[in-house]
Amino acid sequence: MSPEERNERLVAMVKEHLDTRADALDDRTAARLRSIRLQAVESAEGKRGWFRFPRWIAVGGFATAAVAVLAVSLWMTGPRRESAVATADDIEIVAAQEQMQFYEDIEFYRWLAAQENGG
Amino acid sequence: MRIKEERLDSTEILNRFLAGIERRAFRMARLATSDDDEALDLVQDVMLSFVSRYAGKPEGEWAPLFYRTLQNRIVDWHRRTGVRNRFRAWFGGGGEGEEESDPLENLADNSSPDPLVSLQRSDLGEAIESAVRRLPLRQRQAFLLRAWEGLDTAQTAFVMGCSEGSVKTHYSRAIHTLRDFLKEYAP
């Protein structure tokens, strides 16, 4: 008998023993295994109930979210309106209340100066 | 209605898969732990973990994934037990030869009508049981997965988390070790 054949016979002998032992489990162990299996299957059912949506809902939801993100990012990066206040000097003018009044009445002062020059 | 039926079907498929594998899983855990309750706890842990992580995977991938989970748990168990035993040794607990005791060895086998045949079978059975249990962990994993479960080398490598070359080495060593242990009975 070749070493390979001897090895095959040895493996077959051990397998037969393992199968026999697995088939001949005592009632208590078999019952506990059944109970453990049912508990595991039950947990799978519960998990599916909560987390398994139809695939089209998941795909549609993802597509909607992607489009929304794209739209918001385009809107945020679009051309901005020109600000009415362009430089720091302008800000100073706008901020000073007295100067504002002066500029509002500038036409009056011009007219007054013209009158004085003319008179 | 159809979705409900599909769900029932997939649950039934999962149930059948686990039913077909539970006894072997228990025996593997039992060979590793030498204790029924420890082995049952391991199987429970493995089943719940497998279902929670891999039940959604295709059915064809279940067996390697299940055994990978089982083997990882067995390795974890060995590590934990090793640490526990070291602590016991430091604090002087634990009796000599305690690990070797196996309640099955003390059970009488009343199933065979012929006492002589029964004795021979029992002797051979115990010798095989003891030989497989005494195999080093990696050799036992390789042997049980390849020879008993019928996984191929690539699947066994995936389950054991090593290369295919390592699987071949462990398997070959396991056969030689078994032949040594079972010299008296080997064909």
TrEMBL record, chain A:
UniProt KW keywords: Membrane, Transmembrane, Transmembrane helix
KW Membrane (keyword) present: yes
Transmembrane segments: 56-76
Transmembrane is among the record's keywords: yes
Source organism of the structure: Geobacter hydrogenophilus
Official protein name in the record: DUF3619 domain-containing protein
UniProtKB/TrEMBL annotation, chain B:
Entries under Pfam families matching the protein: Sigma70_r4_2
Example of a GO biological process term: DNA-templated transcription initiation
Domain RNA polymerase sigma factor 70 region 4 type, chain residue ranges per copy: 126-174
Gene: rpoE
Name of the protein: RNA polymerase sigma factor
Alphabetically ordered keywords of this record: Sigma factor, Transcription, Transcription regulation
Lineage: superkingdom: Bacteria
Keyword Transcription: yes
GO molecular-function terms, A-Z: DNA binding; sigma factor activity
CDD domains according to UniProt: Sigma70_r4
Annotated SUPFAM superfamilies: Sigma2 domain of RNA polymerase sigma factors, Sigma3 and sigma4 domains of RNA polymerase sigma factors
Family indicated by similarity: Belongs to the sigma-70 factor family. ECF subfamily.
Species annotation: Geobacter hydrogenophilus
